[in-house]
Amino acid sequence: MPMVVSDPTLPDAPIVLANQAFLDLTGYGSDEVIGRNCRFLQGPDTDPADVQAIRDGLAGGDDNLSVELLNYRKDGSAFWNQLVISPVYDDDGSLIYYFASQKDVTARRRAEELEASERLLLLEVDHRAMNALALVQSIVRLSRADTIDDYSSLVLGRVDALARAHRLLAASGWKGEDLARLIQAETPALGRVRVNGPALSVPAAMVQPLVLILHEMMANACRHGALATPPGALAIDGRVEADRLVLNWIETGGPATVAPTRNGFGLSMIRGIAERQLGGSVTLDWREAGLHARLTLPCTPRSAKPAG
Question: Which CATH topology does 3-104 take?
Answer without folding.
Answer: Beta-Lactamase (3.30.450)
